[in-house]
Design goal:
This protein is an alpha/beta fold. It is built from 9 helices and 18 strands. Bound molecules: zinc ion.
């Protein structure tokens, strides 16, 4: 009897130890996403369960290295020493302007963009900015094309992880499935005048971790958004949506929003940039959407035209604290958690 009790105790101890080790393994299997506050630019840091890092855009130049310093702070919070993959969505200063300063401060292993550009109609100082970018990449950036993939390290026992490029330069990934006829919704959809700016050439990324899907379209605009879902939805349904173009209403085509059915949307807007009331309304009307989080309050809008204050990382126009929004994806628990670094408010959502 005593022996039986002993073995029961031993089994219990083994079970407890086993549970603890499973838990610690699970902790390592989180996919993390940090929305760095770059004052109306974009800088999204992704750290995979294998510890690999991907930075999508790097904010603005100048301001005494402000944005590079903020990205470094996010890297410190994520406990990573270098950027393994830096993807620049397009050649606008709020996305690629911060890359040279960041490259001076931290090691960046690989650079990706939508291919070389010799001039940009909308930026008369493009040559100078591009020269600084080319110096940072040493001319070694990799051109992403629609349908290409950035290979990421997999973690044994964890779900598959993939990072696909769905669109660059206004072109979409080759369609492997026979294209269905366009629905009336697609054919009758409102279109805008052709956008000749580099926004329309943005790199579109779809990150998948098990059943979790995160879409980052950079500053992609209306007509190309339409192309991504008409006549066939190339994206599918997603869990997390990075609100396009800082929340401007020349992007965020409601037809795309309704097709991809995001559970959560995070907007990297500035106090006076993006965060259009119309975009907030479109997002609010989505039956799928459980919450909108914002990096900044749009100070020109009313409270109703912003996310609830608790879901906004930075409420005031001047805020050196530059609070982040943090996302942690737990594939084992089939949920992801969003945290506002300012007030530590966290909300968890099921993965679809
Ligand atoms: Zn932008």
């Amino acid at each position: 009897m005593k022996r039986f009790r002993m073995s029961c105790l031993l089994l219990t101890l083994i079970a407890v130890a086993g549970a603890a080790s499973v838990q610690s393994q699970n902790t390592k299997r989180l996919l993390e996403i940090f929305y760095v506050d770059v004052e109306g630019g974009a800088a999204t840091l992704i750290v995979t369960p294998a510890g690999e890092s991907i930075l999508v855009d790097a904010g603005w130049p100048g301001f005494d290295g402000r944005d590079a310093k903020r990205i470094e702070a996010a890297m410190k919070a994520a406990n990573i020493q270098q950027i393994d993959h830096l993807v620049m969505t397009h050649y606008h200063v709020d996305h690629f302007g911060g890359i040279p300063e960041l490259a001076r401060r931290v090691k960046i292993a690989k650079f990706y963009d939508h291919g070389p550009m010799t001039s940009l109609d909308e930026d008369r100082n493009f040559a100078e900015k591009n020269a600084a970018y080319q110096a940072a990449t040493k001319g070694q950036s990799i051109t992403l094309t629609p349908g290409s993939e950035i290979k990421l390290k997999q973690t044994s026992g964890a779900p598959a992880l993939s990072l696909q490029c769905l669109s660059t330069r206004g072109e979409i990934a080759p369609n492997k499935v026979k294209t269905p006829p366009a629905s009336a919704e697609c054919t009758n959809a409102e279109m805008k005048p052709v956008d000749k700016s580099d926004n329309a050439r943005s790199v579109v990324l779809l990150l998948r971790y098990g059943n979790f899907d995160f879409l980052d379209t950079g500053d992609l605009t209306w007509n190309i958004e339409h192309k991504l879902i008409c006549p066939r939805n190339l994206i599918g349904e997603i869990d997390l949506y990075q609100v396009a173009h800082h929340g401007l209403n020349s992007s965020n085509n409601p037809l795309l929003l309704q097709a991809v059915k995001p559970t959560v949307a995070i907007m990297n807007n500035g106090p006076r940039k993006g965060g259009s009331a119309e975009t907030v309304k479109w997002l609010g009307e989505l039956p799928s959407l459980k919450a909108l989080w914002q990096v900044h309050r749009n100070i020109a809008s009313t409270a109703e035209q912003n996310a609830p204050a608790d879901f906004i990382a930075n409420l005031e126009e001047q805020n050196d604290a530059a609070h982040m929004i943090h996302v942690s994806v737990d594939a084992a628990k089939k949920s992801f958690t969003v945290t506002n670094a300012r007030n530590k408010l966290s909300r968890s959502y099921p993965i679809k």
